[in-house]
């Protein structure tokens, strides 16, 4: 049984590492193209396809959805997750990881935006469409928040069906927030894809260190408990 669990964890780690490698490649390719002001065909073609598919009537829907990637909603959501982690298990390490992921991701996004200094396709202050464009803050920080939230919530779920539901809801929200930025024309598709890629890089690094520290603390506690029993 333990061997099967180890094999599953090893497979999951390999998949995670594969996505990390892919995210780094995607971010570097897009970032280099944007920095050199190269023309990206995907920026024009994808938005045209999205507008054709969604139509003008989806404006209200995407204006509503884009708020789920705003600082206000992400901030309130982070507080709710912190409250859950506190009342559920007083998991201070997870709480620290959650804050570091969201706040750190936001600061990294700002630094990269200043460095790349890409202008937006259009300015629309009503939906936070101001400042530099690459990478999309809504896409990046939204990706980080919803992914890390699902990661910690599913650790407290026994039902496999509920775990799948939580992950599905997280990825649907991530996708919709990204699409909303493109539809509203406050970001290019490459901004959103770059935001997703950089967001995953931040998550991968942070959760790797979280798991390392968590295992260290768990093993240390077991050693202390065993020493107390034998004393």
Describe the overall structure:
It is a single chain. The protein has 231 residues and is mainly α. The protein has a domain at 64-215. Helices cover 79% and strands 0% of the residues. It has eight helices and no strands. Helix 4 (71-89) runs antiparallel to helix 5 and helix 5 (92-116) runs antiparallel to helix 6 (137-153). It starts with a helix and ends with a helix. It comes from Peribacillus deserti. The chain crosses the membrane at residues 12-35, 68-87, 92-112, 132-153, 165-184, 196-214.
Topology:
Blueprint: H1 2-35, H2 41-54, H3 59-65, H4 71-89, H5 92-116, H6 137-153, H7 160-183, H8 189-230
Which regions contain 5 or more consecutive residues with pLDDT less than 50? none
Strand tally, please? Answer: 0
Share of helical residues: over 70%
End-to-end distance: 32 Å
Rg result: 20 Å
Residue-averaged pLDDT, rounded?
A: 89
Structural class, please? Answer: mainly alpha
- Global outline: elongated
Instruction: Figure out the total of helices.
Output: 8
N-to-C SSE series?
HHHHHHHH
Oligomer status: single chain
Strand content: under 5%
Largest sheet: none
Pfam family, one: PAP2
Keywords: Membrane, Transmembrane, Transmembrane helix
InterPro entries: PAP2/HPO, PAP2/HPO_sf
Transmembrane segments: 12-35, 68-87, 92-112, 132-153, 165-184, 196-214
Describe, in short, the structure shown.
The chain crosses the membrane at residues 12-35, 68-87, 92-112, 132-153, 165-184, 196-214. With 231 residues, this protein is mainly alpha-helical.
């Amino acid at each position: 049984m333990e061997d099967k669990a180890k094999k599953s964890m090893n497979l999951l780690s390999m998949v995670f590492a594969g996505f990390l490698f892919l995210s780094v490649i995607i971010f570097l390719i897009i970032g280099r193209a944007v920095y050199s002001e190269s023309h990206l065909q995907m920026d024009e073609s994808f938005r045209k396809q999205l507008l054709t598919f969604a139509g003008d009537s989806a404006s209200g829907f995407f204006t509503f959805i884009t708020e789920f990637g705003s600082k206000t909603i992400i901030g309130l959501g982070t507080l709710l997750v912190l409250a859950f982690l506190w009342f559920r298990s007083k998991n201070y390490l997870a709480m620290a990881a959650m804050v570091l992921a969201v706040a750190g991701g936001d600061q990294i996004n700002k630094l990269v935006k200043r460095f790349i200094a890409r202008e937006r396709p259009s300015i629309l202050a009503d939906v936070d469409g101001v400042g530099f464009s690459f990478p999309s803050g809504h896409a990046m920080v939204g990706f980080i928040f919803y992914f890390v939230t699902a990661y910690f919530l599913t650790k407290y779920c026994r039902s496999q069906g509920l775990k799948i539901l939580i992950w599905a809801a997280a990825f649907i929200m991530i996708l919709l927030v990204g699409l909303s930025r493109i539809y509203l024309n406050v970001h290019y598709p490459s901004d959103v894809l770059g935001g997703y890629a950089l967001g995953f890089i931040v998550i991968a690094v942070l959760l790797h260190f979280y798991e390392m520290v968590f295992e260290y603390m768990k093993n240390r506690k077991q050693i202390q408990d065993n020493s107390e029993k034998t004393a």
